Amino acid sequence: MERTFAIIKPDAVERNLIGKILERIESNGFKIAGMKKTQLSQKEAKGFYYVHKERPFFDSLTEFMCSGPVVLLVLEKENAITAWRDLMGATNPEDAKEGTIRKDFALSIEKNSTHGSDSAENAAYEVSYFFSETEIL
Ligand code: GDP
Questions:
Q1: Which long-range contacts (CB under 8 A, 24 or more apart) does 59-63 make?
Q2: What's the CA-to-centroid distance between 110 and ligand 1, angstroms?
Q3: At what angle do helices 80-88 and 120-130 cross, to 10 degrees?
């Protein structure tokens, strides 16, 4: 069983898509091991996306991520990291495959509805950034 970290981003929460996205997660065999709704501070968003600090879209991305509530998730499944990235689809919804969350729900390359860890190392860091072990069940 592997763990990954996911976010339902502000664009999806604002459009009442939490339920639809959680339904896809559960029906694809993930266990929701941790879940909280919150609104990120600038400090939290900048810390979370620190690896992207030199990218031209860093300020826009961190502002967007603080613009409204998000749902933070710890997901468990065999090969959860790859499985969740496959279910999300490509970063840019224009490149995302049919049936993926980003193809169906994302508004743009930035407002792309969900986040998913891209490696085991980042998954462990991102889970611990927002969750304590006692909040993961
Ligand atoms: P991910 O792993 O698929 O989420 O993609 P990245 O790690 O490359 O980028 C992190 C997040 O930054 C993406 O999910 C988007 O929300 C945003 N992003 C990525 N590329 C761009 C871009 O070219 N322009 C803007 N405005 N945002 C971007």
A1: 60/110, 61/110
A2: 6
A3: 80
Strand partners, 66: none
Residues annotated as catalytic are 115
Q: Kindly report, residue by residue over 25-84, the tens digit of the pLDDT.
A: 999 999 999 999 999 999 999 999 999 999 999 999 999 999 999 999 999 999 999 999
In whole angstroms, what is the distance from residue 111 CA to residue 14 CA?
11
Cα separation of 64 and 61, whole Å? 5
Question: The whole model's pTM is what?
Answer: 0.98
- Is-contact 9 111, C-beta < 8 A? yes
Ligand 1-lining residues (CB < 6 angstroms) = 57, 60-61, 91, 109-110, 112, 115, 118
Residue 115 Cα to ligand 1 midpoint, Å, equals 9
- Residue 70's beta-bridge partner residues? 38
What is the atom index within ligand 1 of the atom nearest the CA of 85?
3
2-135 in CATH: which number? 3.30.70.141
CA of 109 to the centre of ligand 1 (A): 6
Place of tokens 């339920």: 19
Domain residue ranges of the chain, discontinuous segments joined by +: 2-135
